[in-house]
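Q: Please design a sequence for this.
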């Protein structure tokens, strides 16, 4: 399977990633990708940017070096907000893409599997939640069958995260949960995104581990919404309006602005 998009990447704004958005786009172009989502960590994550960072993503080009840029967030479930996330629905609605995943230090470190699953199922009812990230994270285990069944019902994407299988990542010490989610997604027919979770630009478009898992468990190509830009955009626009999707225009960084020499 040849993938042409990467729906989970991080820039320096996340606080523990090491590349700019321009570098992510250049690497995506070099990897022959048509689209990436820039999904920096939501405000509750230690080291993450203020919510104003996400409001101002409109200044980023919608196309950079020939690559479509979705301006998004990897929001955090939190137990003490009105919508259960670390950003309001008003602000989430202005973003092109909203991923959601559990992270340390955001309020669920001492929770139970049942508490986390119930919280996530409630969040998945929101039209603003587009994708669930690294759902097999061993530090935040979930009921894979219940989550994947809800994903089918609500049109939410289940991520198969290549980083979860990379030896340099802490999650790779225990991949049983990721395998469980991959099998549940295959069995239920849930929409899947195979992503890099790149925290350095040279990792953008790296899918080898996740592709091998998808093939082994029998995830069908038509389930993989991240296979090309048209499929991604059709799915996202079918779920809700994306008011800033075209904002920012096209920028070819290989050319000087008019009047410069």
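A: Design:
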């Amino acid at each position: 399977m040849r993938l042409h998009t990467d729906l989970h990447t991080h820039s320096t704004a996340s606080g523990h990633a090491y590349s700019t958005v321009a570098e992510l786009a250049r690497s995506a172009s070099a990897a022959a990708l048509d689209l990436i989502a820039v999904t920096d960590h939501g405000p509750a994550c230690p080291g993450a940017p203020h919510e104003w960072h996400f409001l101002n993503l409109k200044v980023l080009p919608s196309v950079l070096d020939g690559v479509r840029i979705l301006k998004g967030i990897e929001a955090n479930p939190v137990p003490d907000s009105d919508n259960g996330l670390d950003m309001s629905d008003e602000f989430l609605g202005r973003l092109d893409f909203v991923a959601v995943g559990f992270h340390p230090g955001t309020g669920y470190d001492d929770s139970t599997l049942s508490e986390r699953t119930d919280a996530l199922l409630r969040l998945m009812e929101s039209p603003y939640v587009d994708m669930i990230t690294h759902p097999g994270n061993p530090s935040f285990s979930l009921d894979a069958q219940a989550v994947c069944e809800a994903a089918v019902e609500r049109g939410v994407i289940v991520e198969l995260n290549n980083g979860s299988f990379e030896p340099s990542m802490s999650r790779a010490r225990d991949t049983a949960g990721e395998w469980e989610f991959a099998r549940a997604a295959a069995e239920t027919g849930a929409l899947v995104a195979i992503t890099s979770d790149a925290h350095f630009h040279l990792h953008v478009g790296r899918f080898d581990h996740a592709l091998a898992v998808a093939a082994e468990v029998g995830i069908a190509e038509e389930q993989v919404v991240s296979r090309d830009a048209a499929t991604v955009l059709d799915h996202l626009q079918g779920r809700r309006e994306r008011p800033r999707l075209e904002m920012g225009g096209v920028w070819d960084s290989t050319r000087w602005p008019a009047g410069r020499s």
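Q: Thanks. Anything notable?
A: The first strand starts at residue 5 and ends at 9. Residues 162 and 209 are 6 Å apart (CA to CA).
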